[in-house]
Amino acid sequence: MNRGCFITFEGIDGSGKSTQINLLEKKLRDSGYDVLLSREPGGTDIGEKIRELILDPANDEMDQLTEAYLYASSRAQLVKQVIIPALDDGKVVICDRFVDSSIAYQGYGRQMGEIIEQLNRFAVDGCLPDITFLLRIEPKGTKSRMAGRELDRIELASENFHYRTFKGYDEIATKNPGRITVIDGRNSVDEIHEAIIAKLAEFDIFKGLQV
Ligand code: ADP
Ligand code: TYD
C-alpha cells in the first residue's frame, strides 16, 4: 500500500464513475479522511490543456500513437505533480480513470496492444493504484444515459471500438483480481455505493467504514 491510499475508478463512458466518486468523496470527508480528487486526462494545468487537445472532435486527424502519448503525458504530469505528493502526505487520492483506461481504450479499443503498457510504465514510474473499482456495463446499457451529452472525440468513435474497450476491461480485471473489484454497473446508484463501501472496509485504513 502507498502511505495514503490510491483509489481509481474505471469503466466505459457513462458507466457511473463520476456519480460514485462524488458519493464516495462525501462519505470519506464526512468520516474524517483527507481526500484529494483528480481526473484523467487532466488534473493539472498542463494535463487540462492536453485534455482539450485529445478530446476536441476537430482533431480528427490525430494519429493513435499521438493520442496514446498524450494520455501518458497527462498522466506523467499528474503522478509527479499531484498524486505522489498527496500520497506522501497520507491523503486518500481518488482518480477518475488511470492507466487501465489507456490499456482498455488504446490497447484494446484502438488495438495497439502491449506497447500501451510499456509506454505507461515510464509515465507512472511505479505509482499504481491500491484499489480499483471497475463499473461494468455494456455500451448498449449506457446509451440512454449518454443521451443529450455533447460527445467528445473518443465518445464519437465507432460502436466496435467501444465494445472492444468494454471487453478489454474484462480482461484487465481478470489479470488483476487482487487490485480490481468489478461491480455490476446496472445496479442502482445506492447499491453500487454500498458495494464500494463494503469493499473499502476490508482495508485497514478504512476499517469500520459504514454506509
Ligand atoms: P461516467 O462518469 O462514468 O461517465 P456518470 O456518473 O456521469 O458516468 O453517469 C452517467 C449518467 O448516468 C448520469 O446521468 C448519471 O446520473 C446516470 N447514472 C449514474 N449511475 C447510474 C446508475 N447506477 N443507474 C442509472 N443511472 C445512473
Ligand atoms: P472522461 O471525461 O473521464 O469520460 P467520461 O466521464 O465520459 O467517462 O474521459 C475522457 C475520454 O477519454 C473517455 O472517452 C475515455 C478516454 N480515455 C482514453 O481513451 N484513454 C485514457 O488513458 C483515458 C484516461 C481516457
In short, what is this structure?
The protein is of the alpha/beta class and 211 residues long. The protein has helices at residues 17-30, 45-55, 64-88, 99-109, 115-124, 143-146, 159-175, 189-200, and strands spanning 5-10, 35-39, 92-96, 131-136, 180-184.
Properties at a glance:
211 residues, alpha/beta, five-stranded parallel β-sheet, globular, binds adenosine-5'-diphosphate, binds thymidine-5'-diphosphate
**SSE run:** EHEHHEHHEHHEH
- Count, helices: 8
**Ligands, deduplicated:** adenosine-5'-diphosphate, thymidine-5'-diphosphate
Largest sheet geometry: 5 strands, parallel
Q: How many strand segments?
A: 5
Cα radius of gyration in angstroms: 16 Å
Give the spatial strand order of the biggest sheet. 2-3-1-4-5
Terminal CA distance: 24 Å
Structural class: alpha/beta
- Global outline: globular
Helix content: 40-55%
How much of the sequence lies in strands comes to 5-15%
- Unreliable stretches (pLDDT < 50, length at least 5) are none
Characterize the structure shown.
- Helix content is 49%, strand content 13%.
- It has 211 residues and is α/β, with parallel strands linked by helices.
- It has a five-stranded parallel sheet with strand order 2-3-1-4-5, sandwiched between helices.
- Helix 4 packs antiparallel against helix 5 (115-124).
- The mean pLDDT is 97.
- The chain binds adenosine-5'-diphosphate and thymidine-5'-diphosphate (TYD).
- Residues 13, 17-18, 40-41, 55, 71, 96-97, 101-102, 105-106, 154-155 line the site of thymidine-5'-diphosphate.
- Adenosine-5'-diphosphate (ADP) is lined by residues 11, 13-19, 145, 188-189, 192.
